[in-house]
């Protein structure tokens, strides 16, 4: 029988690690692995499981500093374990998955699985047990199969972390990958990875880039929105990048007082700040070959098309690029469209 894989569970909060405190008759975060193992006694049959609690913060409050902290922690523990599982609240789980994919890079030699749940372990009919057990199984199977990437396990799906978004506040299938196939599935016959799952490359060294520059403005465009209000944020000098989530494939208003074309041109040419146009719709694609005139005019004014990056990844990737010191608009343009870790499709950044 093959030796069990060593899996480190990094507790970073989430409903999935909530249990009932019998004394207080309240649902509270578990204090350690032992409390969780009482609910999931068979976990160690699948892998040699250890757990470190780093945070019990509500995921709404998890941000760039947390992404850095987790990435550094994985780096420090990288050689001690075969795989990593991160528990996380669902609100920002896709952000953390996207950020870790960039921070850990393609040289990571271990799989990293993020999971959460809609209901806590102590509630009858919960999804926490299913997701927790399957995250451990997926991590162990990925390690045995040489699959080394950041992924999300939720319900019966395995998704590439940097391609995932939250699609429901209540469904047990709360996450999806609208513009990229799921990289695996979980069935009664086991864990099944697709050919799209990324295998490790021993020729690429494991080097991390764990920092993020949060000073960006991400705006969901609505009819009648005033570009002048957004320009006030740009004029403050604190903003280092702008993302316009468009009505279509990168299209923005182009007529009269609500036209964003002068704003884009001034922001890019005068303030030397990049403007990215993306789409707010699941599975959408903003790319330069688009036939939408309003999108073409935005690109001609200086906007960068975001391709099929998710709205989450567009924001995270811009913060990550800015933290690398690429503040020149042309440098940022090239890096946004570059496929770093499988986050964007080739057609979306064709020259």
UniProtKB/TrEMBL annotation:
Which residues participate directly in catalysis? Answer: 15 (o-isoaspartyl threonine intermediate)
**PROSITE patterns, per this entry?**
ASN_GLN_ASE_3
Q: Which InterPro entries match?
A: Asp/glu_Ase-like_sf (IPR036152), Asparaginase/glutaminase-like (IPR006034), Asparaginase_C (IPR040919), L-asparaginase_C (IPR027473), L-asparaginase_I (IPR041725), L-asparaginase_N (IPR027474), L-asparaginase_N_sf (IPR037152)
Where is each L-asparaginase N-terminal domain found? 6-195
Domain Asparaginase/glutaminase C-terminal: residue ranges: 216-333
Which Pfam families does this one have? Asparaginase, Asparaginase_C
- List, alphabetically, the CDD domains matched: L-asparaginase_I
Q: Name one GO molecular function term.
A: asparaginase activity
Task: Read off the Gene3D superfamilies from this record.
Answer: 3.40.50.40, L-asparaginase, N-terminal domain
Which family does the entry's similarity section mention?
Answer: Belongs to the asparaginase 1 family.
Protein name (record): Asparaginase
Species name: Candidatus Uhrbacteria bacterium RIFCSPHIGHO2_02_FULL_53_13
